[in-house]
Design brief:
mainly alpha, Four Helix Bundle (Hemerythrin (Met), subunit A), about 150 residues, 3 strands
Length: about 150
């Protein structure tokens, strides 16, 4: 996936690309590498195994790690869903953890869809642009990211 297209999709998704730009010092190649690595993060499997086994201590550890990673990557919608699960697990308030975990799984599938090749790559009906300075914008969305040309 080209870097500009990934940034555009993440802007539409609701990622904090302005914060990411600063955190990654404008290095879009590094961000892309980290984002793609995040999608293969072993803590997703650990979270699934722990939740299936009812091991909420291990589930907390995996969810907490994913929360930190997603926050650093500016994946705010995913981060927000994880926060609910992490706090329930931390407080041992288990009455809603299965539903919160299901929300995490659904949110993760949305992230996977960002990099999945599909018909939307041919034109998703969302206005995208890159201005003269290389800043990606989408439908006037306040989130922007500097995209360095390679």
């Amino acid at each position: 996936m080209d870097k500009i297209r990934l940034v555009e999709k993440l802007i539409v998704y609701g990622a904090d690309m302005r914060g990411v730009h600063d955190r990654f010092m404008g290095d879009s190649a590094l961000y892309e590498k980290c984002f793609l690595g995040f999608l293969k993060e072993p803590n997703f499997d650990a979270l699934e195994r722990s939740m299936d086994a009812g091991d909420y201590v291990q589930a907390f550890e995996a969810a907490h790690a994913l929360k930190g990673l997603s926050g650093n990557l500016g994946l705010i919608p995913f981060y927000d869903v994880l926060c609910k699960l992490v706090e329930s697990l931390r407080m041992k308030a288990l009455q809603n953890v299965e539903a919160e975990y299901a929300d995490v799984v659904s949110a993760f599938h949305l992230l996977e869809a960002i990099v999945a090749p599909d018909a939307s790559d041919a034109g998703d009906g969302v206005a995208h642009a890159v201005d003269d300075s290389g800043v990606a914008v989408s439908n006037g969305n306040a989130g922007i990211a500097q995209v360095r040309e390679e």
